[in-house]
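Chapter review: from sequence to fold.
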Amino acid sequence: MNLQIRFLVRFDIMTILEEIKSDIDWRMGELVSLKTIPHRYKMVTHHKSLLKTYLVPAIYAIWEGFVSNTMMAYIMEINKERIAAKSIRMDVLLYITEMDEKLNLSVPRTNRNQQEKFIRNIYTTFTNPIIITPKIQTKSNVNLGVINHLLTSFGLDALPNSYEGSLNKLLNFRNKIAHGEKAITVKDNHITEFTQLINDLMVEIAIRIEDGLINKTYLIPGY
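The token string follows.
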């Protein structure tokens, strides 16, 4: 793969960067296998068409798995630093409330007991070193909005809008196939497009994770 990790970094973050690179290498290998399997073995036309159709959910699974695993690893690396709430950027604090039901600002608390419990939870969470729940909400629909929300929550650059059309196309194919629609025809050019898309997205995200670890983009500037 073309991803080159800059090793002028602390030893303690080299490990996670190497783990992410290794994971990308494995996933790229899986994508190559998926793309070539229909052409490596003799099959009747119907079987080849059927295989191509169900390659699309497999390609999506590689994408969603990468997003979940990589962001979880990144969060766990942040947790190791035991950061005080006053030092961490507001987007991260808001992400914490989204992921924890007892802190979620959108949950109604209509009686005094619920409100008091909420205040105690807020106080406990934000007066101790910040621990972010390593749980990623993808809703099985990792489109550009979902991945960019994850990235920007930790001060990482959003992915460019140029990916939106192809990613939506992959999701559209995957969702229709997953729901048993028969009208979808998957061609070789679709498989090539989707596998290249996931390759490119994984590298883009890895570069952003590396930048976040080196520059600690999850902190308020100046801390």
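Two observations follow directly from the output. Residues 5-9 have pLDDT under 50 and may be disordered. Residues 45-79 form the longest helix (35 residues).
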